[in-house]
Structures
1.
Amino acid sequence: MRVAVLVSGSGSNLQALIDHARSDPVAEIEIVVVIADRRHAGGLDRARAAGIPADVVEWSAFPDRPSFTDAIIASAERAGAEALVLAGFMRVLSSAAVDSFPIINVHPALLPAFPGAHAVREALAHGVKMTGVTVHFVDELVDHGPIIAQEAVPVIEGDTIESLHARIQQVEHRLYPEVIRAFAQGRLSVEGRKVTWKRDG
Ligand code: GRF
């Protein structure tokens, strides 16, 4: 499956996807373009280093969310993408994106707890003993679509935002490629909010 990966930051999840795609002899996932909303996103360097086309669609260059979204859609379509994979992409797209592509996102908390951009900080401040990772389909609302996979990460005495996020990211880097691979294999089916996994092989 040809996917466009959207990034805003360092792109460690993008790197996990690149490494997974490289090690997969069947090449079920092909990253055809990496699109960033900022020209200094570290993910762009990771894309270039891997020989993947990198495109910048700068948020500040557009007057509103719909026109920004249209430019993202156009970039993904030019590359021949069949799906969008959000990997630390910090912009909310308008509904035209959901109408154009299946979209998958990874979130650093157990949704529906702690949606939004500060999930790790908020979970820690709330005093939860368990947080984790959610991979979900994107719908019109933020951090809301049908949940594909979740994995718990315990909060440890003395955790900081950084230490907890680092352990969450270890899980993300394993879980996200697994989910994208299952999606590429056509093993995920969605009925309402419920996602069912078909067995591998
Ligand atoms: C990840 O923790 C992801 O869950 C969240 O943003 C972070 C991105 O990290 N949506 P990276 O850019 O993949 O390193």
2.
Amino acid sequence: MDLFEKLNKLKEEGTEKIKQADTQKKLDEIRVNLVGRKGQLTEILHSMKEVEASQRPKVGQKVNQLRDYFQETFDKAKEKMTQAVIARRLEEEKIDVTLPGRKGHVGSMHPINIILDDLESFFIGMGYKVVQGPEIETDHYCFEMMNLPKDHPARDMQATFYIDEENLLRTQTSGDQARVLEKHDFSKGPLKMVGPGKVYRRDDDDATHSHQFQQMEGLVIDKNVTMSDLKGTLEMITKHMFGQDRKTRLRPSYFPFTEPSVEMDVSCFNCDGKGCPICKFTGWIEVLGAGMVHPNVLRNAGVDPEVYGGFAFGVGLDRFAILKYGINDIRDFYTNDVRFLAQFRKEED
Ligand code: DAH
């Protein structure tokens, strides 16, 4: 077979092989075999010496043409393969925009946080600022500054988790009052604050007791603040929380940091005051403690009780949530059962 025939045959076979190749890898192998350094075309080139001298340029030209032809054919085959891969990917990854979307899971706020948020907005609307004191509090702020010196018997009312002699898990948010009072600059206006947060007591947990719960402290100090300001404010809170047609009443009570001290009851929203198991047949439900700030609390914080005075109140947020939502076990707030928690939604949700 002469060289021209060989070249024609190689062209035919090579073209066929390239056509058959179905992967890049096979295509590369064929390329090496045909036009590579040790490939068939090179081999033919090496046998040029057998060709008559006059024929050599022709053969050489033919070999070069064939190399170009193969190169072009390879490029085309490769391009076709790439296009095919892209087309397959596009087909596989096609998004069906007509499919209905998956519904995202929307969590709900914890019932106590719903109450907290609501009360915060309520107080901010009345010009109060919101402060937050430390949960690990000092004996100094939690008790002493609040008119409960070291051996005061009223300390027994709040069984305390002491960390050491001076530090404790706060039993009440009342320490926030002292912290804010100490710093307040009365030349810039009256003090109106609420301080929400967690508090801790050495209590055995049951349906109505929890070793951890939440309070919101309130404090208003200015010149000429009276008991009727306190009563009006408390009435606004309770009506906002439990309904405008609730009746309220104040009962005398005792707290070391207020004098006089009161507790506020709201007429039972279940029986409207007729008497039922919820109000223990009294017609009234106790909702918070309050009073006129004791002069010692002001004095301890460097405020002159002859000039300034005001009122304070303490709200149990768990208690508000229990009453508002009719919950009968306080432990439900803290045991993270989503079936319980998912029942509560903020009104605007
Ligand atoms: N700190 C009190 C408690 O934990 C609640 C309280 C009562 C706070 C009366 C007050 C207040 O600010 O005036 O039982």
